[in-house]
Amino acid sequence: MATKIVTFHCLEAQEEQMSHSMELSSQLRKKKFTSSDEEASLCKFYPIIPGDIMSVKEILTEPKFPRHRTWEVLRETLADDELRQRDQWTLFGNEAEKVEVEVIRNQHEVRRRVDRLALRREAQRKASMHLRFLEDLSMKAPDFPIPLRPHTMWEGMTVQLSCTSQGSPAPCITWYKDNVPLRETPQPWNYKLQQKYGLNTLEIRRCSPADAGEYKVVARSCLGEASTFATLAVNSYHGTEAGLLRAQTAGPVLDQEASFASTFPPTFVKEGENLVLVCGFSSPLLPFQQDVTWFRDGVPLRPAGHVDLQTDLRTTTLSLKGMLKEHEGLYSVHLRTWDGTVEHSAFVYVKDGPAAVSGAAGSPLQVGCSDVNRDYVFLSWKPPSADGAGPVQGYFIERCEVGTRKWIRCNELIQPLCHYPVMGLNENTMYQFRVCAVNQAGVGRPSKPTNPILTSDPMEPSRTMVVKVERGKEIVITKDQLESQIRVPFPPTDVRVCELSDTYAVMCWTEPDPRGKEPLSYFVERSEAGKESWHLASFEKRISSTRFAAFDLQKGKTYRFRVRSVNKYGVSEPSEASQPVSLQEALGIPAAAHSVQAIRDTANSVLLQWKEPKNPEGILGYYLYCCELGTSEWRTINNKPVTCTRFTVHGLRTGKEYVFRVKSVGRAGNSRYSEESEPLRVRAAKLVPTAPSAISLLRCTGIEMVIAWRAPASNGGDPVRGYYLDQREKSQSTWSEVNVRPVKDRVYTVSGLREGHYYQFRAFAENLIGVGRPSVPSEAFLCEQWTMPVPGSPYDLELREVRQESLVLLWAEPLYQGQSAVTGYVVEISPGEESEDWTAVTKKPITDTQLKVSGLQGGQIYRLRVSAVNSAGVGRPSLPTEPIKAQTSPGSRDIEIGVDDDGFVFMSFEGPETADKGEVKWNKNYREPIEAGRVRLESKQNKSILTFTAASEEDLGLYTAEMTETPGISSGFNFTAADLERLMELSWQVRHPLISLRSEGWQVEVLEQGAVRLWLQTEPLSKGAELRMILNDREISSTPARRIGFDRENGLVDILFNQLAKEDEGSYTAQLKDGRAKNQFTLVLVDEKFKQAVAKAEAKRRDWKRCAGPHFEEFLSWTVTNDCEMILKCKVTNVNKDTKLKWFKDGVEITQATYEQSGVGKYTVAQVTRKEAGVYRAVVSDSRGEDESMLELVDKEFDKLTQQLSKQCALSAGPVRIQCTAAGFKLYCSLKDYLSYVKTSWYFKEKKIDQEERTKPGSSMQKVWIEIFSPTEYDKGKYTLQMLDGQETHTRSLDLSGQAFADALLEYQRLKQVEIAEKNRARVTKGLPDVVAIREDKSLCLTCFADGDPAPEMSWLKNDREIPSAGRYHIALDNKCSTLTIHTVNMEDSGNYSMFVRNKHGTETVSVTVSVYKHGEKPRADAIEM
Questions:
Q1: What SS3 state is found at 323?
Q2: Can you tell me the distance from the alpha carbon of 845 to that of 843, in angstroms, rounded to the nearest whole number?
Q3: What is the spatial distance between Cα 153 and Cα 236, in angstroms, rounded to a whole number?
Q4: What are the residues whose beta carbons fall under 8 Å from the beta carbon of 1120, sequence distance 6 or more?
Q5: CA–CA dist 557, 584 (Å, integer)
Q6: Could you give the CA distance from residue 535 to residue 539 in angstroms, rounded to a whole number?
Q7: Which residues contact 1073 (CB under 8 A, 6 or more apart)?
């Protein structure tokens, strides 16, 4: 029993261990396995041990090994057979290792296969994604590169109609016959349809007249559809026209209908400007055509205030006043015809008007009103395309009552979204609304105002009933009349949310029914969800309409609303609460479009396609932007969002490259810009070629005709791959094919003709796109053998190098020579497009098949033709060329010739940027090919370079280059011997270049410390440049005393000498080599030049040592100021606090000099005289040393100073003025300071004034004058003062004549009279004392003397009263003398006494104060005691 239990537990442990090992094998790199080679007995009694290559003994002795109750049994059993068990376990370990290695190898193989399979699946997934991406990129509308061609067959023959189609995705092809779809018939021998690799084929076996008709192929895809058609004519043996009767049925003769003769192109106009679109008709409109209709974006236009439609018999006109961005769109005009309607369409772009504020955003557009109520309107609009200086932050909404012209803002805070509920309006009022965009620059232009709206109750019509009675009368019954018994209103119903955003919620409800007769208003209440407290949400304002916008809601909270009805009788019960309402998340801006792709359309437009975002919800349209490559200026294409994902962009510049990007438009604003498209050069899309022209007959044998034609004027952007030729007899109307396969040459031999019949021909050109239109049928050519003696006409006339005054004409010689060989050609020219006035270009026939026609008149149109000449005469002329205007096309360039960097002669020709990329064809003499071994050709974009491998005289001649795509772009150059000689000399210089010198040879430079540097500079050299320095025919290198430097990057070579020595004298040569370029430069440093360098170096060295202590930075010098002062100045540097500066003159120290902290010393002399001449010396010194500066202000230097002083003195002179005196005139000139060094002279009427009795010159420190005594009329004239400063003469003048002289003379006479009067007037000659003191009882005697002519009258006054001679007063007069005597004076005699004298010339008064004092008193201190 115990054995069974042990065995059971062993098996259980074994299974557990095996499962654990399998789990680990799938997770760990090192796996553990169990052995399968153990004996049966051991397997029954012992557990399975993990094979980690440990011995059993080690496992049992390991203290941390997990124990099992069977381990003790195993330990006892193994003790007896240890050697045998050791061998068994060793074998177990080896086998386990082998198994582990094999399992690991199998795991690696499985993992490798799994990884390979995963990689293959990933590669397949990426490849499929890439293919889908390529398909998306290559999406192209259906098209027919090779369309159907018409066929004419005989009855019973088999015909095959074929065309090629293309498009991505692949279009679905449908065949039609006479507009009836063709299906695969059960009889395969009749119709057989095939489609393989884009080739669509319809095979009709055994044609019958019933198969004749119009066959059409239509290709359809998600990008559109395209069609091609052709006519099949089946000729019956009963008549050549029988098979066409089905397709050509005679109809009634109709009047000629009008069609569009002139149309309007895509137009650009600014906001606010007027627009006029005009279309002209080819003929007068028929009566049924006169109803011409105009459309904008498919909506008919009707005459209105700003729209005017005018149609007459020849034109139709659409006029729009005050264009707005809402008016942008596709304008089309429809014209009726017999077959239906024809139309012309073109896009009109409306650009933003000038910004109201610099940098502001554009105006919003398409502002619309909805949900109009009594006091509520809901507005919506579209954002502008132009953000301005910054993104649009929001919008302001404004309203205006119609008739007031006063705009009122509706919102205080900017509204970020493009919709807004407006409340608080007046009922039954007409309003208009507009919107302004706001960004960081300010408020932009307002949008177009909305149409006037009337705020009214929208439910009013539903409450009115009209009953019609007899005689046309009506009875109007309203529900208000029927509900007059209602007093307190009922509550509203159906309260709900009608508009919800992240900033507001608009609630609406249904008015109570019945509502009563009285007018209703409403109160709105709200409550947070879960609460029973209700608050007034309408802020005690009654609401007239059934709409309410709540703006004060908080995000994250849920609200409920209810409404009460109010009339004059009271307030109703509240309505039922609405469903819980919470603000929604902010509306995000739409995602940007992607996969923007530009496709060539025309020479001025591009078709732009893009893909809408993955989530197109909320996108209102798209704005498009373009930028010319190489610039940073992005231009807005459309200002009105386009709703489709493709748009044709007009107004681009031909040949320029553009990139495009797109913005999505939503209510939350515009998206970010999409990724830019790939650059696209604006060129016309490839089309089929135009029709060939000028079909001519070159030769006829009677059964064959050689036909030639001119190449198409335009190849459609792709080279012409071949031509088809059709023929018909003159009497027939059907054309038959001449060649089934296209021919490349424009000359074709038509055989199988019948002699004596007339034939007409037409030609088709074919390129990669398809077959173009047929040419105009040729004239009828008679098929008969040519036997005329004169030659046939030349053909293949081509024009090259058309310039303002010249062009080159090429042609081919005629195929028919006549009776003798062609000996020359006559070239004729005719001005104008249709003139037949032909003039020979040259006087004699020319022998070459080319001619340069010169002497043209710029801007004139010409045609040319050529006739061949032989011995019999002049043959028939060729067909004339197409009219050509003599002008140089923009971008035309001539061939340039030169030498390249390797010394090879080359010619280059560059086409204009607007030309399509194509090869440049080089020829010699226009037609001869250039020998390939002598040149090599290289092309870079529109530029082609022809390089001569070894230019020689064999290469001389005329070389021409032309663009293969556009032969009209061409040029020629005549390579002459003179050009060859000049270019070979230049080639030698390029191949044997010289290193150019930038400096003027070697330069000798003495450095600050006395070192000498020899240097030169060349052009920059490469890193591999080499230098050899030669001195006196031996190479030298750098030494410590002579260092040689070589800066290759700057081309600088120098030699630095610490001190020049005798052995450094000699000739220095620098030999330079840089690749092929080399040169050498020599400096001869000997004799006097070497001595001068040594002396200068020594002086520099001494000066450097001097500068070690305080020294003069600026030596002594003198200057003269504007005030004629002399200033001696010097400046010292490297000073310290102990440094002293002293001044000396002739050895004597000057103490008046000043010294500033900046180191400047000054000595100022205010008045310069001879004593200032001398030797001045300044000495600066301290403990480090001293330095001196000396100035010898003597001889010439002093003369130079005086001359400068004199010049400054003369320059300070003012104008000559006049001063009148009693003696005469005094002319003077003021100076700041007059110096005796200035030589002055006075001139009267250009004659010097010498010293005379009547004139007297003079001067002072600040004036120079001349006095003129007793002036007369002879002294009238111009006076000039000349001042000579020693070198220059300075003049001042005064014109003393006319009124100036008269005024001066009058003033002189007045002053003279004043002087006479002053001389003879009465005056006191001997006066009185100021104060007189006299004791009482004495006698006072006052005496006064006077003079004057005539003798003056003399009077005595006391206190201004005259004193009579009487009593104690006695007055005595004696010969101009008067004496006043007062006897026995008393105190009353004190006072002010005066002597008054006068005569006819004047008066004078002299006063004296008399002070009388009593006995015993003292007189006044200031008085004279009498």
A1: coil
A2: 7
A3: 9
A4: 1126, 1127, 1201, 1204, 1205, 1208
A5: 11
A6: 9
A7: 1025, 1026
What is the distance between the alpha carbons of residues 1137 and 898, in angstroms, rounded to a whole number? 73
C-alpha dist (Å) from residue 86 to 63, 95, 1404: 20, 14, 168
- Cis preceding-peptide flag for 169 (omega within 30 of 0): yes
- Taking the C-alpha atoms of residue 243 and residue 159, their distance in angstroms, rounded to an integer, is 15
Q: List the structure tokens of 649.
A: 């962009």
What is the token pair recorded at 382?
């579209």
pLDDT (0 to 100) of residue 540: 59
How many whole angstroms separate alpha carbon 726 and alpha carbon 734? 10
Please answer whether residues 1219 and 1294 qualify as being in contact, where contact means their C-beta atoms are separated by less than 8 angstroms: no
Residue 1329: predicted pLDDT: 82
CA angle 524, 525, 527 (to 5 degrees): 150
Tell me how far apart the alpha carbons of residues 509 and 1047 are, in angstroms, rounded to a whole number: 92
Query: For 188, how many CA atoms within 13 A lie in the half-sphere containing its CB?
Result: 1
Exposure b/e, 151-163, CB count within 10 A at least 16 = b: bbbebeeebebeb
Cα 1232 to Cα 1213: distance, rounded to the nearest angstrom: 7
The structure tokens listed for 480 are 């208000």
Q: Are strands 1424-1425 and 1331-1335 parallel, antiparallel or unpaired?
A: parallel
Token readout for 365 is: 């557009």
3-state secondary structure 675-714: CCCCCEECCCCCCCCCCCEEEEEEEECCCCEEEEEECCCC
**Cβ density class 551-572: b for 16+ within 10 Å, e for less:** eebeeeeebbbbbbbbbeeeeb
**For the chain, which ranges sit under pLDDT 70?**
1-94, 133-138, 183-190, 237-255, 469-472, 484, 540-541, 913-918, 941, 965, 967, 1234-1235, 1426
pLDDT at position 1045, please?
Answer: 92
One-character DSSP codes across 793-849: --EEEEEES--SSEEEEEEE--S--TTS---EEEEEEEESSS----EESSSS-BSSS
**Contact criterion met (CB below 8 Å) for 620 and 644:** no
Half-sphere exposure of 922 toward its Cβ, with a 13 Å CA cutoff? 24
CA distance 406 to 767: 66
Instruction: Assess contact for 212 and 246: CB atoms under 8 A.
Output: yes
Q: How far apart are CA 1165 and CA 1172, in angstroms?
A: 8
The one-letter code for the residue type at 803 is R
pTM of the model: 0.50
DSSP class of residue 997 equals: B
Residues 1203 and 1126: beta-carbon distance below 8 Å: no
User: Residue 115 contacts by C-beta under 8 Å, 6 or more apart in sequence?
Assistant: none
Residues, the chain, total?
1426
Decide: helix, strand or coil at residue 242.
helix
Which stretches does DSSP call E strand in 629-768? Answer: 634-636, 646-649, 657-666, 669-670, 680-681, 693-700, 705-710, 722-729, 736-737, 747-750, 758-766
Q: Rounded to an integer, what distance in angstroms lies between the CA atom of residue 838 and that of residue 949?
A: 46
Per-residue confidence (pLDDT) for residue 355, from 0 to 100 = 83
Q: Report residue 229 as tokens.
A: 């058609």
Distance CA 1071, CA 368 (A): 87
Q: Is 746 exposed, middle or buried (0-12, 13-18, 19+ CB in 10 A)?
A: buried
User: Is residue 1130 a contact partner of residue 1115, using CB atoms and an 8 Å limit?
Assistant: yes
Q: Which residue(s) pair with 1366 in the sheet?
A: 1369
What does the pLDDT read at residue 138? Answer: 63
Which residues touch 191 (CB under 8 Å, ≥6 apart)?
Answer: 182, 184, 185, 202, 203, 204
